[in-house]
Design goal:
This protein is mainly β. Helices cover 9% and strands 49% of the residues. It is globular and about 95 Å long.
Length: 930
């Protein structure tokens, strides 16, 4: 199937050169693209004068994508930017990776900045599965998203720019009469894929055989009686498809409206939205309300004042993390011969816990309130010199409330309640001068300023047990309040920054920037860091020998270098820490962490070489980039001898590199009065390598992943599965022991302990790409985006339970029916042996390539005749249907979906463990403008 979708993509590219005979409106559109405003740190630029690598995604590209997470709208739209949702839970965390992983132990998320305010982006979940803190932001608020990819663009954010910077600009009012727009939509969701499991007949057949093969069939019969509640399992009296209880048809309801307007002196924009989503997983729901007010006023000819204020409230009903028996997804392990309910109550005699007991007798809710705001002023001291002062505030409050009733699984205390509350405040105060100097052909823009950022976080929790009834679930109804905790933590940054841009006749472009950051997180000897950057551009197409070319519209060569840092290590990694310990209810102090006064930032230096081009009046345009990013002084929590009184200490040890190519191609294939078609294609490669490690470059093995010098970060490190011995049905493994000549012994063994582990793959793709087409024909508009990832693998950490040819009584994947049964059978599934551990060990048996191409989003709309609408007082009326994750083309079979990952440490970042697939959603909607 993958082959088919690639043909679709190639077909789009085939038409790239169509219709090069442009019309006037096409030339105007191309010129607008060149003069497009690009938001950069503490200022703006245009595409023509940009010497950095910045990807821009406009509101037009993200509207009407039926998903509550705005990060989902970025997928496939920016070269070198990989966006992955952990799994199909509504609140699930997102990973945005810009040009590869730039850290091992510190954070790998980019810095998010909304209207100049660095956003709080810390997972505050207490149930082991992440909650995306940015879920509080609605896509309806967003005017544009700029992703600063190279160090030259990100270095203005200094110590927090190593993983890239995502600048979010919210909408503002425009000059003109008041405008009112309304959007209403209703959508329906289903899983992108379902794994096939054994039905009752197959389950009985496999496990009776597994029992016979080890001489213990009576034991199996006893278990089947028990799991079936003593019903007629031999004749399939009960055949439960647990998917029917795990999954449901989800729904998405969106409603938003915006009022905006302005004149020469002021502008305003108010928007409000509601998102009400029922997830595809039972009892996973979300309701979010947002509002935003942006106003600005030209008070005098010199003074401009403004206010940006956003509020959101999000309520999420959640389920357990992937590693809990009570999570719905682990119900697939239950026998299909078990009833889901008996006399209206969830059946408690299932193979493992029946999650329906948790579903009926427990709740887990998370409520998030967020306020973001900025008061800003701009004062023109003289004509070309302006002073800006911004005061920003980000308040994030998350409350979690869990209750487990008397009949909840494993309950022994007549009810259990857990409440937690976290309040986090971020204050940002920025002051900077901007000076524009124009001397004939020479243009200089400078920015210089300071910024202070302080964050305070307070956390409290309380636990209660022994409740009189499940009708009383608040802590004050507990018979015993048996636990509680609380802490307060702070950090601060103090920064000085400057930037200068030079432009000569629009042909020769230079930029230099520097930032000096001070952070409370680092040692007293290295508390301040300096992060410089330089870039240059040469617009070759403006030279005399090309300026009259009818073929080459734009040819610009770019080069940049810069340093950025990573400060995401927690607040006290450099400090001597003391804690309180109790002995016989007498408190005392105990040293918990040694200090390191030399601890400092991880630093990434990045070189970027790029070429921007445009052909045939920019009917064809694009970018080609090569980057080389090196991260030095990786932060490690290194082991130290226990004789020191400690086990670990943070140190700057280790180096990492990322390098690769990015290619972008934009085409306006057809441009006519009633028909237009444009295509945007991007593809990127990333070569990630560990350069050095602590302790003399010793390997660091963590479960089934390894960090080894010369290899990709967190490569899979597994025994290699060799199939099945056709003579006796034993699982076989390649020995892979090193021989004297440096080669490996490729003979096989049925003794797992005789086999050596090898590097067998990596969780990060080597290639990612996307292609978007936008077509307009008369009143119809049609757009779609394909995304693809290639070169990655996924390890199914649940495979050793669910694909083991009947090793224990977990229900099995359908392919286990292809097990070895008779001498001479050729198969990859070993003989069924109950509790025989026949091939169930961690190996490449459960590792699989996760290459895929996905129709990420598709939309079809119709705009009614303008004259007809104006007669009823409507300036625009459009109806549409859109879909996300509509089709997936992949050979991946081990799990539900190639973008489904475990949300706990059980599976690791590149693994799946009973993890939910994403949702495919179809939405019907209407836009009305007045």
């Amino acid at each position: 199937m993958r082959k088919n979708v690639l043909k679709v993509s190639v077909a789009s590219l085939f038409f790239i050169g169509v219709g090069v005979y442009g019309q006037k409106k096409d030339t105007i559109a191309a010129e607008k693209k060149i003069d497009e405003v690009i938001v950069v740190g503490y200022g703006k630029s245009t595409k023509a004068k940009l010497t950095d690598n910045v990807a821009k995604i406009s509101s037009e590209s993200i509207k009407e994508i039926p998903n509550a997470n705005f990060q989902n709208t970025i997928v496939g739209k920016a070269a070198g930017v990989r966006v992955t949702q952990t799994n199909g839970k509504l609140e699930s965390g997102f990973n945005i990776n810009v040009r590869g992983a730039a850290s091992i132990s510190a954070g790998t998320d980019p810095l998010y900045v909304i209207d100049g305010i660095p956003m709080i982006n810390r997972n505050e979940s207490t149930n082991g599965a992440a909650v995306n803190p940015l879920i509080s932001l609605s896509a309806t608020e967003i005017e544009s998203i700029e992703i600063l990819k190279d160090a030259s663009s990100a270095a203005i954010y200094g110590s927090r720019g190593s993983n890239g910077v995502v600048l979010i600009t919210t909408k503002t009012g425009k000059k003109g009469k008041p405008r009112l727009s309304l959007n209403l939509s209703q959508g329906f969701s289903a899983p992108t894929n379902k794994v096939e499991w054994l039905n009752a007949k197959e389950y009985v057949e496999l496990f009776l055989e597994a029992g016979r093969n080890v001489g213990d069939e009576p034991f199996v019969i006893g278990r089947l009686d028990r799991y079936s509640n003593n019903t007629d399992w031999r004749n399939g009296e009960i055949n439960t498809d647990w998917h029917d209880y795990i999954f449901r048809t989800g729904s998405v309801r969106d409603a938003d409206f915006t009022v905006s307007g302005g004149d020469e002196k002021y502008n305003y924009m108010f928007t409000a939205s509601n998102n009400d989503t029922e997830g595809i997983i039972r009892k996973n729901d979300m309701d979010r309300n947002t509002a935003r007010l942006n106003v600005s006023a030209q008070v005098t000819n010199k003074l401009k004042l403004g206010l940006n204020l956003g509020f959101s409230r999000t309520s999420i009903e959640r389920v357990s993390n992937d590693n809990q028996f009570t999570t719905p997804m682990q119900a697939v392990a239950l026998a299909p011969i078990s009833p889901a309910f008996v006399n209206g109550e969830p059946f408690a005699g299932t193979t493992y816990v029946n999650f329906l007991l948790a579903d009926k007798y427990g709740t887990y809710k998370t409520n998030i309130k967020r306020v973001t705001g900025k008061v800003f002023g701009e004062y023109k001291i003289i004509k070309d010199l302006a002073f800006n002062s911004d005061f920003g505030y980000d308040y994030y409050s998350q409350k979690e409330k869990e209750y487990q009733g008397r009949k909840y699984p494993f309950m022994s205390t007549d009810g259990y309640a857990f409440n937690s509350n976290v309040d986090s405040e971020n204050i940002i105060f920025s002051n900077y001068l901007t000076y524009n100097l124009n001397l004939g052909s020479h243009h200089v823009t400078t920015v210089a300023g300071m910024e202070y950022n302080k964050n305070t976080r307070e956390y409290t929790s309380v636990t209660g047990i022994r409740f009189p009834s499940d009708d009383f679930q608040n802590i004050d109804s507990a018979g015993e309040v048996n636990a509680g905790s609380g802490n307060v933590t702070e950090y601060a940054f103090y920064s000085l920054f400057g930037r200068i841009n030079y432009d000569f006749e629009g042909k020769y472009l230079l930029k230099a920037s520097i930032r000096r950051d001070g952070s409370s997180r680092f040692g007293v000897n290295n508390r301040y860091g300096i992060f410089p950057a330089f870039s240059a551009g040469w617009v070759i197409s403006k030279e005399n020998f090309l300026s009259t070319s009818n073929t080459i519209s734009l040819l610009k060569l770019r080069a940049s270098w810069g340093e950025t840092g990573n400060a995401e290590i927690g607040n006290f990694a450099s400090r001597d820490l003391w804690g309180v310990n109790n002995y016989k209810q007498i408190p005392g102090f105990i040293s918990s962490q040694p200090g390191n006064d030399d601890l400092t930032w991880e630093k990434s230096s990045q070189f970027d070489l790029g070429l921007d081009f445009g052909l045939f009046k920019n009917r064809i345009s694009g970018e080609i980039d090569y980057y080389n990013k090196k991260t030095n002084g990786l932060l490690f929590y290194q082991n130290v001898p226990y004789t020191t009184g400690y086990s670990n200490i943070y140190r700057n040890i280790g180096d990492l590199s990322n390098k690769g190519f990015e290619f972008i191609l934009n085409t306006r294939n057809v441009v006519k009065e009633n028909f237009s078609w444009d295509t945007s294609f991007n593809i990127a490669n990333n070569d990630n390598k560990v350069v050095s490690l602590p302790n003399g470059n010793q390997d660091i093995v963590n479960g089934f992943v390894i960090r080894r010098v010369g290899e990709r970060l967190d490569s899979f490190y597994l025994v290699e599965y060799a199939g099945v011995d056709p003579a006796n049905g034993d699982a076989l493994f390649y020995k892979n022991t090193l021989l004297a000549d440096g080669s490996r012994d490729r003979s096989t063994t049925n003794d797992y302990s005789e086999a050596s582990r090898v590097i067998a793959g990596n969780s990060a793709p080597t290639w990612i790409g996307g292609i978007t087409n936008n077509i307009e024909y008369r009143n119809f508009d049609f757009s779609f985006t394909f995304q693809g990832e290639f070169g990655a693998s996924i390890y199914n950490a649940a495979g050793r339970f669910q694909s083991t040819s009947g090793d224990w009584f977990d229900n099995q994947t359908k392919d286990q029916m292809n097990r070895w049964q008779n001498p001479g059978d050729i198969t990859m599934v070993p003989q069924a042996r109950l509790d025989g551990a026949n091939g169930t060990q961690e190996s490449t048996r459960y590792l699989e390539k996760s290459d895929f191409v996905r129709l990420r989003n598709i939309s079809l709309g119709y705009t009614f005749n303008k004259g007809l609408m104006e007669s009823i007082g409507v300036s625009k009326l459009r109806i549409y249907v859109s879909a996300i994750n509509a089709l997936t083309f992949t050979n991946y079979k081990n799990g539900y979906d190639p973008e489904s990952r475990s949300d706990t440490s059980r599976g690791g970042g590149g693994s799946t463990f009973y993890s939910a697939p994403p949702a495919k959603t179809v939405t019907f909607g209407v836009n009305v403008n007045f």
